[in-house]
């Protein structure tokens, strides 16, 4: 099994006919994703030839859903048009919208994440790499050839660290990897993914990657204490961040001790999460924890 995305998912791409949309649609198709259409009001009725797959272009998300039964959309539109694109998808009743676009104004993200929630549409992102269920489907820009299917679930703020942990644990493999994005406002949180992985019978262990700034990881720790029985291994990006320095990621705002990597590590370790000091150490902790789980006597 998996969370949020499976081989049954039928995927639209908003902005498919643009440069980034074309490039990544080709990569998603190569990974086995069932891309059933693109969306561009100015090119409705056209088709795009992706080597051995011809993909139709629809004038709206609603038209694409009616014609194909799509239940996922991946958004590659420019920042100025992202809010309208997500609202359109939510109005059409799509189940999942993966917003890859970076540089979206925060007030737009606040508006469309709130609107989508009311409409019952899950947002992953914005400013995220998307999500992948290896061997089944890939919605976004995550490289599909660096890992394989397995029993580890991964949720991460950082796209780069998503890829690194996927590669370091490639011999173990993943159920689903979700890059939630590092902006101050995101549609799907660590807690949402923790809950879904906890309920997924084929996820044996959860990896949580956070970063300095905000309190998302502290809130995730509180949720783990009350609701998660599966082992969790964590990593916090920013252990070496210089004190008092403004960092590049939009969500990396640190005030005093609040939001520091050390404070987040302490919060997670207090609820039993093993936290690595480097990505490589984190991968080793995953292997150790999996060995412990698999050697434990079954009730």
UniProtKB/TrEMBL annotation:
Q: Which GO terms describe its molecular function?
A: succinate-CoA ligase (ADP-forming) activity
Q: Which positions are annotated as binding substrate?
A: 163
The EC number(s) this enzyme carries:
6.2.1.5
What does the subunit comment say?
Heterotetramer of two alpha and two beta subunits.
Q: Which reaction does it catalyse?
A: succinate + ATP + CoA = succinyl-CoA + ADP + phosphate; GTP + succinate + CoA = succinyl-CoA + GDP + phosphate
Q: Has UniProt tagged this entry with the keyword Membrane?
A: no
Give the lineage: Bacteria, Bacillati, Actinomycetota, Actinomycetes, Kitasatosporales
Organism domain of life: Bacteria
The alphabetical list of record keywords is: Ligase, Nucleotide-binding, Tricarboxylic acid cycle
Give the CoA-binding domain ranges.
4-104
The catalytic site is made up of 249
Q: Give the main EC class.
A: ligase
**PANTHER family for this protein:** SUCCINATE--COA LIGASE [ADP_GDP-FORMING] SUBUNIT ALPHA, MITOCHONDRIAL (PTHR11117:SF2), SUCCINYL-COA LIGASE SUBUNIT ALPHA (PTHR11117)
Q: Which family does it belong to?
A: Belongs to the succinate/malate CoA ligase alpha subunit family.
Protein name as annotated? Succinate--CoA ligase [ADP-forming] subunit alpha
């Amino acid at each position: 099994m998996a969370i949020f995305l499976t081989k049954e998912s039928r995927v639209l791409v908003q902005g498919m006919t643009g440069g980034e949309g074309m490039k990544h649609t080709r990569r998603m198709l190569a990974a086995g994703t069932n891309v059933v259409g693109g969306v561009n009001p100015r090119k409705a009725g056209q088709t795009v030839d992706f080597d051995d797959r011809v993909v139709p272009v629809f004038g709206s998300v609603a038209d694409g859903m009616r014609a194909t039964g799509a239940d996922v959309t991946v958004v590659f539109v420019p920042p100025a048009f992202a809010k309208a694109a997500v609202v359109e998808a939510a109005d059409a009743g799509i189940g999942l919208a993966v917003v890859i676009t970076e540089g979206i104004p925060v007030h737009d993200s606040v508006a469309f994440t709130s609107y989508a929630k009311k409409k019952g549409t899950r947002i992953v992102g914005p400013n995220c790499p998307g999500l992948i269920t290896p061997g089944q489907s890939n919605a976004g820009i995550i490289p599909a050839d660096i890992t394989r299917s397995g029993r580890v679930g991964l949720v991460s703020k950082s796209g780069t660290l998503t890829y690194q942990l996927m590669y370091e644990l490639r011999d173990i493999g993943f159920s689903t990897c979700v890059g939630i994005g590092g902006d101050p406002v995101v549609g799907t949180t660590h807690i949402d993914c923790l809950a879904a992985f906890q309920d997924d019978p084929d996820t044996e262990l959860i990896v949580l990657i956070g970063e300095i700034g905000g309190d998302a990881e502290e809130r995730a720790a509180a949720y783990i204490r009350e609701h998660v029985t599966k082992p969790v291994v964590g990593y916090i990006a920013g252990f070496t961040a210089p004190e008092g320095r403004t960092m590049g990621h939009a969500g990396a705002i640190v005030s005093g001790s609040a939001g520091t990597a050390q404070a987040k590590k302490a919060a997670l370790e207090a609820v039993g999460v093993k936290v690595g000091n480097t990505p490589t150490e984190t991968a080793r902790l995953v292997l150790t924890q999996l060995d412990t789980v698999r050697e434990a006597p079954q009730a």
